[in-house]
Write a structure and sequence with these properties.
With about 130 residues, this protein is of the alpha+beta class. The chain has helices at about 1-5, 10-15, 20-50, 110-125; strands spanning about 60, 65-75, 75-80, 90-95, 100. Strands 4-3-2-1-5 form a five-stranded antiparallel beta sheet, with no helix packed on it. A hairpin with a 6-residue loop joins strand 3 and strand 4. It is elongated and about 80 Å long.
Length: about 130
Amino acid sequence: MLLNLLGFFEEEAAKNNGWIMWVVAGVLIVGMVLMMIIPQRKQKKRNEEMMSKLGLGSIVTTIGGIVGEVVEINEKFVWLQTGSGDGKCIMQFVRQAIHSIEPAPGSPEAVAAEKAEKEQGEEIDEIK
């Protein structure tokens, strides 16, 4: 009933306001496209930054949940050493299968991350 009061369904109103519907439709389409493209670009940028941190000795988690240390890298593949003691094995993965990367133990990035975690823990203790 409200739409009838506004004149949306009347023929004369539709003839006079036809261009308004096209403008609204165009704005909605542009908005939907932007809402899809912008998050994809952000995700791609985050993924590229993560892959730039990939190096020998990094601890990696794959999309399948396998955790291992990087022992060899090339443009398409990453070889991970998993297991401990005598049960160590090396597995080959496609680079796109990497979900997250932790810096190699003892690397400057790892030391900085540990320092930041320690400072954050001290701040929490001070608040308590």
